[in-house]
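User: Last request for today: this protein with flavin-adenine dinucleotide, please.
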Amino acid sequence: MTTSALRPELDDLRTRVSGTVTGREEPGYDEARAVWNGMTDRRPWAVVRAAGVGDVVPAVTYAREHGLDLAVRGGGHNVAGNGVVDDGLVLDLGDVHAVSVDPAAATVRVEAGATLAHVDAATEPYGLVVPSGVVSSTGIAGLTLGGGVGWLTRPHGLAADNLVSVELVTADGRQITASETEHPDLFWALHGGGGNFGVVTAFTFRAHPHGPRLFAGNLVYRQDRWGRAWAALEEWTRDLPDAMTAITTTMTPPPIADMGDEPLLLVGFTWASADRATGEALVGRLRELAPPDEEEVGEMRWVEWQQAFDPVFPKGVRAYWRNTSFDRLDDEVIDVLVRRGAEQTWAGTGFDVHHMGGAFGRVPEEATPFPHRGARFWLNIYGFWSDPADDADRIAFVRGLSADMEPFATGGQYVNFQGLEPAGHRAFDPRAVFGPTKYERLVGVKRRYDPENLFHVNHNIPPG
Ligand code: FAD
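Assistant: Here's the final one, the structure of the complex with flavin-adenine dinucleotide:
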């Protein structure tokens, strides 16, 4: 950032925006700066809680004119804590979350502060859905700009794959819309390139007929059946229809889940089709291959299923995450997953294996920045503990499993499942994440829309 001769004044900023401005030493400051990851303890100069889209241009202009680092916040879930910045300005869009549905066109316009819960609540009455993630308090903005992986990735692709257009404010304060026909290169970059190119004020998504009830649930395995369950998944996932998505989790559930205190393996699935009989038959096949100890399976409201894991991830828990793509689920990999799964005799870490492919896998690699479309599986290793005294152990667990999987990794890294890495320790390397060709294209877009790197509090793509 360049330093500026202008001295930032809270009262000056207050005259320019309609929303609330909270500075240091003012009531509500700690609440205003807090983000989801409780390990993030940054002290911005001020937080603007925008009252509406109209606050975005003045806040961006203020940060630029005064040489302030600018953090842009949607749902505040960023695992690396990028929704807040030391000594700079936070633009928090959390109150700007209107969602409007056009049922005839099957499109949904979503303001950038909306959470997944806001989007699901608005689309459910129309029997429509926008593919997103699996924890409903996550912000649609950060999720979509990084990609957006969830229960509907196989039938409908990433959240970003369903973008029709994106309205945003650029670093020089212009309000523009990016789509296939307007600013098409910028539109491409917004499919996984993160918050590097401007402040999004609204997304328009394609929606899909869905539910509102659907067949979903969890098959639950205790430790002595894990090896068989993983082997069954290897076989079962080979020829699944797109409508079936499975996310397999190993963790000791937290006490609120009321599932005992030993580590469990849960095969969660979503069948995104009205053809219940075929979904039942597919789950029956998995049961034959690996009989579960327990199960909770049936027809349920989509919005309930989308919120089922929310209580595990309350705001303020401590978190350090890593992820990798991989293709093999053979004995060597199963050995790692079983051994590391059993280490989790505590509640507070977990890991998910997402089965990919389907519509996600058919998008050509160069069509979006999102990396490694060909990966069969994606492993996300995560933390959700609460005592700082546990930091070292929990971080060591995440790093240990990540290191064990390195020989099998196919090179994919998903920025949204990426925690904060200390300096010098596996720092975010955009060239490696996106690959040289897509990286150069992203840099070109960055140079055109943000040559001074105003938007750098993110997984940054420097303009060079
Ligand atoms: P914020 O911290 O508000 O923002 C994150 C970053 O996004 C910002 O630093 C900024 O760079 C950018 N940004 C936010 N708003 C804007 C805007 N208006 N304009 C421009 N840039 C903006 N991801 C998945 O794909 N699938 C999941 O199922 C999933 N589950 C999750 C569950 C939990 C409990 C958590 C903590 C995260 C999960 N994630 C998931 C990861 C999530 O997608 C990322 O953490 C994402 O960054 C969160 O977006 P946010 O808007 O809530 O975060």
